[in-house]
Amino acid sequence: MINEMTGWSEMKSLKLSRFLVLGMEFLCAALLICVPFISRWYEEISTGVGLVDGSTFVPVCVMLYICDVFAIIAVNSLRILLRNISAGEVFTETNSRMLRMISWCIVFAGVTFAVFGIWRFSFFFASFFALFLGLVMRVLKNVFEKAVEIKSENDFTI
Amino acid sequence: MAIIVNLDVMMAKRKISSNELAEKIGITAANLSVLKTGKAKAIRFSTLDKICEVLECQPGDILEHV
């Protein structure tokens, strides 16, 4: 369906999303290489406090590597989700599984942030937001699962 | 599920093929196959009405609870 005011269509929106997800995949892959530089830069500018004092270089490196793996898994799931939606397969078990995977990745990233909160308390905020987003994704996944069930019933009603 | 669809039995009694029945009741052969194999999760009253009309039988002749 095309919006008469903007000329924007559903297919264009999907293409934009797929393009952005592809860009995000490249960014996540690039981040793996840049982790030591980012950690060094963070150590230089960081002024926060935490339970543990001292260098944040190694903890930030570990946190970024762990979170980047979760990010790559989540973005890859998003890519599969968008590919299926583009193919017209919306309410399927696979898509439901992808949403579950994304929600768990966000929750685990939130837990990782929480652990890093030992070095810098400010990371508890990031942890809270990640856990909140993970919860929202989980609820979305539950709605999606119900939709898959309803669609299946509808498809098999003769 | 404890509901058995005896559509194939009635079809054999009336000597009617799947394609012919599907055409007469206005559903696709694929959907009729879903119904015959017991994969269907529900049946509309309108579909059941047409099947009974074409096969000249009662709903109880097609559906059985075990």
Please sum up the structure shown.
The complex is a heterodimer of chains A (158) and B (66). Chain A has 158 residues and is mainly alpha-helical.
Describe this structure in words.
The complex is a heterodimer of chains A (158) and B (66). Chain A is mostly helical and 158 residues long. Chain A has one domain. Chain A is elongated, with a radius of gyration of 19 Å. Chain B has 66 residues and is mainly alpha-helical. Chain B contains 5 helices and 2 strands; from the N terminus they run E-H-H-H-H-H-E. In chain B, strands 1-2 form a two-stranded antiparallel sheet. The longest helix of chain B is centred in the last third of the chain and has 11 residues. The mean pLDDT of chain B is 90. At the A-B interface, loops of A face helix 3 of B.
Task: List the main descriptive attributes of the protein structure presented here.
heterodimer, A: 158 residues, mainly alpha, 4 helices, elongated, B: 66 residues, two-stranded antiparallel sheet, 5 helices, 59% helix
The chain-level mean pLDDT of chain B equals 90
Structural class of chain A: mainly alpha
Oligomer: heterodimer
Structural class of chain B: mainly alpha
Largest sheet of chain A: none
Describe the secondary structure blueprint for this structure.
The complex is a heterodimer of chains A (158) and B (66).
Chain A: H1 10-45, H2 57-86, H3 93-116, H4 123-155
Helix pairs in contact in A: 1-2, 2-3, 3-4
Chain B: E1 3-5, H1 7-14, H2 18-25, H3 29-36, H4 45-55, H5 59-62, E2 63-65
Antiparallel strand pairs in B: 1-2
